[in-house]
């Protein structure tokens, strides 16, 4: 078999498995969706699936909603928010929005309430500073930036909550496909910031959701 | 002046500022400690201060406890734990312990209860698996590894709480001074893992403490 | 001439030469196949040949079986297994299967018995641990992973036989086209693991086959 | 001869040559100082000269003032400011001050009026914002940062004058000896920012001085 | 909203905002142009917009002139030069001209008088030396090169004014997509040279224009 | 505790654990040796232990033989060879011998018969070709090279047995601390070659020993 | 103008200028050819020109012979060999031949007698050794390899004449687009070898031709 | 034995072997010198030997002249020049002279007549241009530079003979230990330039000598 579906994952980690669509054929995805549904999972997120593959999947009789901006599909209904607080998604520039959409959809899929502020790059710092209230209200912040790797650093200094930074591959030349932003974010001396992979809106939202659902085990 | 002490940081982010000792002279550190104390801060952490600099600082009349294994000094008493739960610090190998000590001290300084499991590298996976209970109990996990960048990946799959990964510079050759572990951790497809700088035990503990103190703002 | 066919290679190293199809035209491949057959080689493997080139080659009258998933062609029949034991091919994720197919076909072409376990990535470690029996039975293991460079490390700790690790270019961002997985595998402190080039399923299988055919020269 | 002293440089570019002390012996430096003085240059800057080499040079009878914090020596008197305006030197952290000292001394040596603001890193953005007046007044700004490559980006958005960014090697791990800060600064989308070599306080001040002395050729 | 248009930027920095067209849809660009015009901005530069996107934008009723060689559009009229002097744009080779066109258009858009000298690479140094007069006359020089990272270094030694270096991605192999030229330019020991991102003709012209418009604040 | 001694490893993988001495204090090593001996292990290898640490360890009453050239200590007697055949250790240059010594000692510690041929670099290929007999006789070959990454490639073409390549950090400049040799070896198209970490003589010998002890499980 | 044709180059360096076709339009090439011809140059080489651009150029009325395998055009006749001796072009694998064709055509264009030996990679060293005579006869050798960076190293040890090494971008994974071969060739300790850019068959042949035409100036 | 002395090398390549002293003990060097002398070699060059090792070697009774600036020893007399022409050694800066000294000594050891021009960096291009006569006279040029990787590029355009470029590790920051200069030199579009390893004055001189001794085999 091409996959070992991890149906106990929900039990083990409290969150059901998600399908990473990038390296898989529509047929493989359909097979995994089937296996998951048979194992009792009603809500399934399929990330990194382009429009063409989504169409193929639909033709195979798989029923799901396609979110074009997030390059993702959702089988079943999105849930009502059940986290402890709000996740704030910040982007530095308009071109980083594609990654933000993946983060927003994932966070909502996992039961979080999400706010979004775009184009808040630090090269015009007042555009960020005017959102002090959203920053103060957030339980977790996801800061997304390609050319302005500086964003999470500044946000980390303003916020009292954890910041998950997402470098993006947006830019050219010295951006090195996102590696420069990644290293700059990791290197930053702002406390309270940790980093996920380049363009990994999904991973940031997953981590933010885990944090937002911590119930306090003391 | 050589420093602008950020005395409002406690107000703004809920945590008092910490002194990064690495690039500063003993005299500079003494000056910053004085300014902070005058501004009312009673408990101060000084990270990345070697034994020699600590001795110089003591000779200047600064009163603090030196934690040699963590390469850090603490002005004032360490507080009682007041977080919501426990932070678990895991290391892959004995040589990663130095970084873990910085994380443990920082976490305790910030009011957290900490458990430590060393030498749990994945090349002998049963050494990790036998600690399932500590993993299940933790509110946040800090996973520290140099040669076995794999550790956070495996832990991320076992745990239901957020994992902060710390790559270390331990190793040789293809470890590239910790860059290999950093990239491997970021690249890993385990959900619920985010990463801080190489050897940055402080930063991992700081974010873990933020997470552990989230009170739920809903 | 564009090639010096190494017809004595079989005599010298015990294995006949293989054609690396990537940089060659169908015509060049046809020419080399002819030369090899004239030199008495009946079974020929052509790797890294895409569907279009395979079709061209067939049109030129060259008779061979095309294995689409492995991107390879085989002139003549695949042999019966004649190695000492079994080669186990493990993949971390479904997207690594393309590389595994090259490894499996090569290993079978070289006379080995092969078992395959897919999607055994360490982010859900129980999916690997449930295959303890296959691991114990193997004479050599080929561990293939892109995003979870950790796999060979964990396998190396579980197995009593040599492990050949194959990094893949599967992934994005910090995967650096497979370089991150390559360095992580080389850096790993699990003993008994050695590494071949990114996506080089062929090379791993070749090495595994050499090991599996060692007759003991003492 | 070990050097071809460029005595016409003053004529050609309007600024006299400076001695880069790093790779030269005290004897070589003494020889070059002599040649320059014989050619009529009265004021000479010797950069990157450590205390020990400075002492040797003094013992050889060379007369100059040593500026320990800037690791530089000055033969002759520092001039009165004769530029068009003020150069503002900003550092992100206390540990970046060493590089700033080289910039400040060089700028003063070249006839500029200089203001200095330290520890204005963006992780506590109010420490930068409170210096709005100095930023508005400056003719050129030199922004120096190692761990917070973000600084020039933010400053570039606040200032109406050119910003010269200097990455420093301060930091650890993902700082890659300053390369991360360098790439982040170059990658930044703030307009009006250009970059010099890592730790190159001299080069930044040199260009800032050129800008500050432009008389308007229209 | 997908963008926070920075309409106060003109007030704050003396230059109106520019639209970076690369990551934006024609519809997004149209929306931003509208918002800017409503805020009173009459002249707008849209960079990195290819012919196809420009056509779409025109079809949406947006009125602008398209400059194909510069891959840029201009809403409104280009202004008369109002800077203090002339900006000289130098390219090393014919293939670097595309980047030069972006620089020239940006500089003119920002009110500068511009001269252009192409194919002045240092491998035939007399082709550069014969332009001594243009070099002497310039208020700022923009030196653009991909394969001959040496150009700004040589120009920096010849000129009495600031030089802004632009590495280009022109070349192959060891050019590393422009990174080699970038590092070589930063590494160069010519004083008076600073560097912007690979292929960033816009950024160089912006910085050059700031310098050219400095009125002397003493 | 600072270590979890893996006493079942012998049972699990057929080889007892080895102590990596590099990041450990003499006291920690002594503690691990004690725990291992109490668990019944009589023969222990301690790698990467310099002369000074070895002396400290001896002073603590730990009894072992120190092998200075291999930077390693052996508790207990070296065993008689019990593998199936001979391991051939080849070095390219005299300076690579230090790594070879680690490989030779490890291989002997693990019960193998070892032959050594030094200074067989390919820049004088006859020095390699004259050792055809040793190459033909070997069951496994370890090829060690820093400046001449080519060695394993050539050996792989000559030998009928598996070749384990060890890149070394010997060299300067473009050797990039061994990374160049590592990548060159991985990149080589010689079949039957796999690679371990830079300077990892131990790891190469460990895998070679696994191969040499394969009993044939068919 | 887009180009400054270096018509004195022939006088200055003894070789006429060549047109690098890669970044230029057919119209630009036609213009440069015209200028050169008017300046009296009768034989012109145009490198890195693909079939489509060659066709466009021909349609513009430019008369030249197109060499498809070398991706180059020649205006005028190829000359009779007038060098001192023979240039030997060696390739490691069939896929490196494209680069070799550029080298061969360039060398012939510059008046050299050329011999070619393909597929002489060191993984089957006898295929190289059987060409001892050609190696002994050569005045200069050009050694071209992508996956087997080892080739020039071995050749350098066999030959008594200078060897120019050309790394190629042939390969995958750890070949890093030719960078691995480049670094390996530079790192090699074989004396008498120097290196040109990745895939730069032209540059190697140019250098080889200069060497082959040295008349002895003593 | 730790070395296989290549005594036939003189016969094979026309030049006797040289000892690379860096990774060898004084005792090993002494042993190799003895073996060479017994094999009839009277003149031996020992490169990369620091003062301390030279002293040890002398104490062992080995008789040789030590050249401190070149970090090299010479057994026997330096020969009279017997090449066809002159080798010109050019350095960009005073700090590059150490590498030049190795090149000069090696070239003289191999029987060449050598001229040296120092501090001819392109940032003051007239310092290079004033040496047109030496450039025109040379049979081969060795161009050595660290911070000004541009030098060989400019020289390549001025000279009619082959240029061997030597990048040096001189510099800081973006020089990347010499890698930047290496890549810039390789990337340069000046024809007639080839490159050796960072700091490899020996290798450059060796190839220059081969070129200078070519007798013309036509
Ligand atoms: N060990 C450490 N690693 C990284 N960042 C640190 C460390 N210790 C302190 N910091 C950060 O450095 C800031 C203080 O820097 P400084 O102003 O240079 O003392 C603190 O607020 C922390 O955010
Ligand atoms: N997919 C592959 N990846 C790496 N090496 C290969 C592959 N297929 C064949 N080879 C090697 O390439 C050699 C043949 O190369 P060539 O002479 O270019 O056809 C074979 O002997 C193998 O060593
Ligand atoms: N070609 C370009 N390269 C780099 N930065 C640019 C370019 N064009 C515009 N920009 C910058 O991008 C900003 C606008 O970005 P955005 O908000 O994404 O449209 C402008 O203010 C400029 O600072
Ligand atoms: N300074 C040097 N840099 C690079 N290669 C060298 C140097 N000195 C000697 N060699 C080479 O090293 C070979 C001898 O190496 P070895 O056998 O290790 O002494 C000589 O034949 C030269 O090819
Ligand atoms: Mg924007
Ligand atoms: Mg351990
Ligand atoms: Mg999976
Ligand atoms: Mg600070
Ligand atoms: Mg040109
Ligand atoms: Mg040797
Ligand atoms: Mg071949
Ligand atoms: Mg100089």
Explain how this protein is built.
The structure is a homooctamer of 218-residue chains. By secondary structure, chain A is α/β, with parallel strands linked by helices. The first copy, chain A, has 9 helices and 9 strands. In chain A, the strands form 2 sheets. In chain A, strands 6-5-7-8-9 form a 5-stranded parallel beta sheet, with helices on both faces. The first copy, chain A, has a 4-stranded mixed beta sheet with strand order 1-2-4-3. In chain A, a hairpin with a 4-residue loop joins β3 (65-67) and β4. In chain A, α2 packs across α3 (51-59). The longest helix of chain A is centred in the first third of the chain and has 13 residues, at 26-38. The N and C termini of chain A lie far apart (42 Å). The F-G interface holds F 93, 121-125, 129, 147-151, 153-154, 156-158, 171, 173-176, 180-181, 183-184, 186-191 and G 93, 121-125, 129, 147-151, 153-154, 156-158, 171, 173-176, 180-181, 183-184, 186-191. One magnesium ion binds next to loops of chain C. One adenosine monophosphate (AMP) sits between chains B (17-20, 47-48, 200, 202-203) and D (93-94, 119).
- Average the pLDDT over all residues of chain A and give the rounded result: 91
Q: Write down the secondary-structure element order of chain A.
A: HEHEHEEEHEHHEHEHEH
Largest interface: A-B, 42 and 42 residues
Adjacency order of strands in the biggest sheet of chain A:
6-5-7-8-9
What compounds sit in this structure? adenosine monophosphate, magnesium ion
Q: Got a strand count of chain A?
A: 9
Strand count, sense and barrel status of the largest sheet of chain A are: 5 strands, parallel
Strand content of chain A: 15-25%
């Amino acid at each position: 078999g091409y996959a070992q579906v991890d149906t106990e994952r929900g039990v083990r980690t409290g969150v059901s498995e998600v399908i990473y669509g990038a390296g898989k054929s529509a047929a493989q995805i359909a097979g995994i969706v089937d296996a998951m549904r048979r194992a009792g999972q009603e809500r399934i997120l399929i990330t990194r699936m382009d429009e063409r593959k989504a169409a193929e999947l639909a033709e195979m009789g798989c029923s799901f909603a396609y979110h074009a901006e997030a390059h993702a599909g959702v089988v079943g209904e999105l849930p009502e928010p059940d986290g402890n607080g709000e996740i704030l998604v910040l982007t530095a520039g308009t071109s980083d929005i594609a990654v933000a959409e993946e983060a927003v959809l994932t966070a909502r899929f996992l039961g979080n309430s999400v706010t979004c502020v775009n184009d808040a790059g630090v090269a015009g710092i007042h555009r960020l500073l005017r959102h002090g209230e959203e920053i103060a209200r957030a339980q977790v912040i996801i800061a997304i930036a390609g050319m302005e790797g500086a964003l999470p650093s500044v946000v980390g200094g303003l916020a009292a909550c954890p910041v998950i930074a997402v470098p993006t591959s947006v830019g050219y030349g010295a951006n090195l496909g996102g590696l420069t932003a990644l290293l700059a974010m990791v290197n930053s001396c702002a406390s309270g910031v940790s980093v996920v992979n380049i363009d990994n809106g999904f991973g940031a939202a997953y981590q933010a959701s885990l944090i937002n659902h911590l119930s306090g085990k003391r």
